[in-house]
UniProtKB/TrEMBL annotation:
Localization: Cell membrane
Keyword Signal applies: no
All copies of domain Tr-type G, residue ranges: 4-186
Protein name per the record: Elongation factor 4
The keyword Translocase is annotated on this UniProt entry: no
EC numbers: 3.6.5.n1
Lineage of the species this protein comes from: Bacteria, Pseudomonadati, Pseudomonadota, Alphaproteobacteria, Rhodospirillales
Highest taxon of the lineage: Bacteria
Annotated membrane topology: Peripheral membrane protein
Keywords assigned by UniProt, alphabetized: Cell membrane, Elongation factor, GTP-binding, Hydrolase, Membrane, Nucleotide-binding, Protein biosynthesis
An example Gene Ontology molecular-function term: translation elongation factor activity
Organism the protein comes from: Telmatospirillum siberiense
This protein's encoding gene: lepA
SUPFAM superfamilies named in the record: EF-G C-terminal domain-like (SSF54980), P-loop containing nucleoside triphosphate hydrolases (SSF52540)
């Protein structure tokens, strides 16, 4: 296809505003699949994505659209994830396109990720087409929301497209808007090859698949290519595109988005943002790259059964083939034995990886408290990065400790503003800005990342009955008065429960956790003391009285099979426990204990 007949676009929206549903409608109309193969949210192909109703990996589909001008256009659609943890996936998809469809739910209006995504689209020089979705809903107020988009974002909405992705109303108008309003890509077919590496993943049948956007030159089957940054070189086995089915072609031309396969063994060779060039006739310089993807939340993952350690290592390496954004490194814990310290983009990312390990690889895991990355300067001048609270050096050995701060944008209806401001203050937030758009307030805060990793998002949602939305970016490191709180169970420190907190809050958090653990640890046949300590000083103490737990007593004799079932259930329950000295702590305690009230 010549450049004039290509349009590359992303769909951006706040979560649940209807991106995936719109993508479904577009694929139904112009994609390469039969009606009987169509199912909802066809791009959300991973099971977890489908169950949670979120898009994790950005996907791309080529559509063929015969426009009203009689010409047929090649439309390359990129679906993007909406959750803050995956903001990076959004940014790399946008770099491969010239325009964006900005989907806004006409019954909800502009939300935090609407804004965050628009800013990224503007940074990428995108032409933005506003699309008001869900106009079939009785609660839809398209005129009011159009005004809000103008006020808050400053985007002209006079020719916004009104649609219902659910019923299919207005889909044709979306397609026409893409053709008439988005610029076509530019590129020189005769120049040396420069293709942007947008994404890569591992497919168990096909090996590593790379998603590319060809900027200049032509990417051909059989060609010898080189990654300009990693230096790796490969022979291209095949190129093609998704409809969303895989279609092989001989070449990808400038302006096109598609995939390549090259018998690549490791995704590590395929850095997102790298430039792919021709080995024989290389480009003189790479395309401008992307920001690197840095894990910001770390936690320990340990097998419940120590014998599963090698299995866990194997599973992590397989998962990493698919998701280069998480890191892992072997670690040992006095309490939990051998495991891995893993880094994630955020808490949702952590939960997804944990769930995939348990589900797809059949592993029982203990997850320790998530922690941010602290920077420490030791008194001997050495700089260290601290990923694990248990490893925090003694106070006397530290010259200073710094923690990461974020800049958070929260959008919330007026009536919930008070409690939201209070929450931010409790979490050591510093207000930067407060503005109104109609009856919605937009607040910008600086907050320590440490204060949001556990439960900030949950709290925000519950305080605002689900109406607040939230987005953040990493801001900078700042020196802080931080201490390590150690939790002791029957006088033994449990390293996996240690956490770092600001001095002003450490004691009360320590107390909270002891109270919470008292409920989370089942009573056992002897008394258990639960204590919190800061630098050797006990700041809280709870005690759990003894109990003789006899499951069979409940059965009043009689039913033998019921007894056996109960026994098995109890055994099953044991699998999820960890022994500390003589005390058993259930897996759920490790995370639950740290959620603040
Ligand atoms: P995404 O998170 O932006 O990908 O949103 P989804 O496409 O998953 O849609 C979120 C929810 O809104 C789903 O339950 C959809 O069925 C629903 N939805 C999407 N578009 C429409 C629409 O036009 N009208 C109505 N009534 N519901 C819609
Ligand atoms: Mg989706």
């Amino acid at each position: 296809t010549d450049l004039k007949h290509i349009r590359n676009f992303a769909i951006i929206a706040h979560i649940d505003h209807g991106k995936s549903t719109l993508a479904d409608r577009l694929i139904q109309k112009c994609g390469g699949i039969e009606e009987r193969e169509m199912r909802d949210q066809i791009l959300d192909s991973m099971d977890i994505e489908r169950e949670r109703g979120i898009t994790i990996k950005a996907q791309t589909v080529r559509l063929a659209y015969k426009a009203k001008d009689g010409e047929t256009y090649e439309l390359n659609l990129m679906d993007t994830p909406g959750h803050v943890d995956f903001a990076y996936e959004v940014s790399r998809s946008l770099a491969a396109c010239e325009g964006s469809l900005l989907v806004v739910d006409a019954s909800q209006g502009v939300e935090a990720q609407t804004l965050a995504n628009v800013y990224q689209a503007i940074e990428n020089n995108h032409e933005i087409v506003p699309v008001l979705n869900k106009i079939d809903l009785p609660a839809a107020e398209p005129e009011r929301i159009k005004q809000q988009i103008e006020d808050v974002i400053g985007l002209d909405t006079s020719n916004a497209v009104m649609i219902s992705a659910k019923t299919g109303l207005g889909i044709e108008d979306v397609l026409e808007a893409l053709v008439t309003r988005l610029p076509s890509p530019q590129g020189d077919a005769d120049a040396p090859l420069q293709a942007l590496l947008v994404d890569s993943w591992y497919d168990s049948y096909l090996g590593v698949i790379i998603l590319v956007r060809v900027k200049h030159g032509i990417l051909r089957k059989g060609q010898k290519i080189r990654m300009m940054n990693t230096g790796a070189s490969y022979q291209v086995d095949g190129v093609g595109y998704f409809t969303p089915k895989m279609v092989q072609v001989d070449a990808l031309n400038p302006g096109e988005i598609g995939f390549l396969q090259a018998s690549i063994k490791a995704v590590a060779d395929c850095e997102v943002g790298d430039t792919i060039t021709d080995e024989k006739r290389p480009a003189d310089k790479p395309l401008p790259g992307f920001k690197p993807n840095v894990p910001v939340v770390f936690c320990g993952l340990f097998p419940v059964d120590a014998a599963d350690f090698e299995d866990l290592r194997d599973s992590l390496s397989k998962l990493r083939l698919n998701d280069a954004s998480f890191e892992y490194e072997a670690e040992t814990s006095a309490a939990l034995g051998f495991g891995f310290r893993c880094g994630f983009l955020g808490l949702l990312h952590l939960e997804i990886i944990q769930e995939r390990l348990e589900r797809e690889f059949n592993l029982d895991l203990i997850t320790t408290a998530p922690s941010v990355v602290y920077r420490i300067e030791l008194t001997n001048g050495e700089q260290v990065q601290l990923h694990n609270p248990a490893d925090m050096p003694e106070v006397t050995k530290m010259a200073k400790i710094e923690e990461p701060w974020i800049k958070a944008t929260i959008m919330v209806p007026d009536e919930f503003l008070g409690p939201i401001l209070q929450l931010c203050t409790e979490r050591r937030g510093v207000q930067l800005d407060l503005t109104y758009a109609g009856n919605r307030a937009m607040v910008v805060y600086r907050l320590p990342l440490n204060e949001i990793v556990f439960d900030f998002y949950d709290r925000l949602k519950s305080i605002s009955r689900g109406y607040a939305s939230f987005d953040y970016e990493i801001d900078s490191y700042q020196e802080s008065d931080l201490v390590k709180v150690t939790i002791l169970v029957n006088a033994e420190p449990v390293d996996a429960l240690a956490f770092i907190a600001h001095k002003g809050q450490a004691e009360s958090r320590g107390r909270q956790i002891c109270t919470r653990l008292k409920d989370l640890i089942p009573r056992q046949m002897f008394q258990i003391a639960i204590q919190a300590a800061i630098g050797g000083r006990i700041v809280a103490r709870e005690s759990l009285s003894a109990l003789r737990k006899d499951v069979l007593a409940k059965c009043y004799g009689g039913d033998v099979s019921r007894k056996r079932k109960l026994l098995e259930k109890q055994k099953e329950g044991k699998k999820r426990m960890r022994q500390f000295g003589k005390v058993e702590i259930p897996q759920s305690a490790f995370l639950a204990a740290l959620k603040m009230g």
